[in-house]
Amino acid sequence: MRSSHCCPLVVSLLLGTVAVFPGRPAAAADGASGLDAAAGASVLVARLNDDAAVVARQYEKVRRESETQRSIASRDEKLLVRARTVMTALHKDLGRIARAQYRQSGGVSYTSLLPDSTRELMQTHNVLARVDLAVAYAVARSRQAETRLTRERTRASARWRALQKQYGVLATRNRTLQTKLDVARAVLQRQADAAAATRTCRGAVHLQQPRRRFGHPWVTPVEGYRLSAGFGSGGSHWARGHTGQDFAVPIGSPVRAVGAGQVVRVTCGGAFGMEVVIKHAGGFCTQYAHLAAVTVGQGDRVKAGQWIAQSGTTGNSTGPHLHFEVRSTPEFGSGVNPVPWLAARGVKV
Question: What is d(CA 48, CA 252) in angstroms, rounded to the nearest whole number?
């Protein structure tokens, strides 16, 4: 399944958009001509991908904080109901104590004024007074707790409403970016299809690499993927079983070198469409196929995690994905299962 083609006017509009982001990833100028259409589409997709990732992180952060504030408000509401229940009970206790004191003081006869009776009466009054004081103190504490909980619930509710508003703004921005990204991906894939049809590689589009250091010499070839067809699986597209592992990702997703090595092949056309093959220390090679653009040239040395291409759906492909192979030689037919090969190097997919 291929992306729809876009008219030249859309391409011009997209290329005009490129100039709006001067400080973001940029393609290297090709002589005096500057950005050509192919480089412009690659750069635009990379930029929009980056923008969408930033908005997605903000969106998720606001979503989590919004859930937290809503939980706080709900918790405080329950505590407030409990505090008011306690207050009601305490007021009833105060009423009972007051009635008991009245009965004790109002029912005193002259005979109760004897020394022993007087002492007993005073002790009873002292007990009631202490209970009265304790209950009054509990009422004051409960009233303070009720006031605090009301204030906190109001604050949490206000914060939740503000976050919901911010959540809506980010959702709108995300939808706008996704619409632009869909159009840019369609342009990029159209150009890739044209190059693959003529078996003419457009040359490397040099995107600014992300500032990220990997603490491991091996990485996955893409991020944010879904595993699709696996090694050795059957299907009408493969005469003798699938020769690699497919990673389903959107068109234009950054493709990374899984380890350090040297680019030994960059080709366009045929069953694999646009492809890059890298040779690593120890003799193994990795292949990255069905690409929409390449960001390296033959003979280039690459590091683990370095962007070497953008994913696509060129060649014998049913939809956007990266076809990844591990080979004992650079040639087709020498493949081994990539999943255990990566696992042996500490990379779980």
Answer: 10
User: How many other C-beta atoms are found inside a 10 Å radius of the C-beta of residue 307?
Assistant: 21
The single residue listed with the structure tokens 């109001």 is 154
Using alpha carbons, list the distances in angstroms from residue 2 to 187, 197, 307, 312: 12, 14, 24, 9
Greatest Cα pair distance, the chain, in angstroms, is 122
At residue 229, φ and ψ (nearest 5 deg) are: -65, 130
241: Cβ contacts below 8 Å, ≥ 6 apart: 232, 233, 234
| Cα gap 253→17, rounded to integer Å | 19
* DSSP E strand stretches across the chain: 226-227, 245-248, 254-256, 261-267, 274-280, 285-294, 301-302, 307-311, 322-327, 335-336
Contact 28, 206 (CB under 8 A): yes
Beta-strand pair 285-294/322-327: antiparallel
Burial group, residue 37, by CB count within 10 angstroms (0-12, 13-18, 19+): middle
CA–CA gap between residue 44 and residue 187 (Å, rounded)? 10
In our burial notation (b when 16+ CB lie closer than 10 A, e otherwise), range 194-228 reads: ebbeeeebbbbbbbeeeeeeeeebbbbbbeebeeb
Contact 53, 45 (CB under 8 A): no
Burial, 346: exposed, middle or buried (Cβ in 10 Å; 0-12, 13-18, 19+)? exposed
Strand partners, 312: 321
Closest CA to 225 of 209, 248, 195: 248
| 226-227 and 285-294 beta bridge pairing | unpaired
Task: Specify the DSSP class assigned to residue 48.
Answer: H
Residue pair 277/287 in contact (Cβ under 8 Å)? The answer is yes
Find the angle CA(101)-CA(102)-CA(106) to the nearest 5 degrees.
120
Strand partners, 278: 263, 286
Token pair of 278 as six digits: 């890298």
Instruction: Please list the rounded mean pLDDT of every run of 10 residues in the chain (349 residues).
Output: 38 34 37 53 92 92 88 81 76 66 52 50 62 71 78 83 90 94 95 92 82 87 93 64 92 97 95 96 96 95 96 94 96 92 96
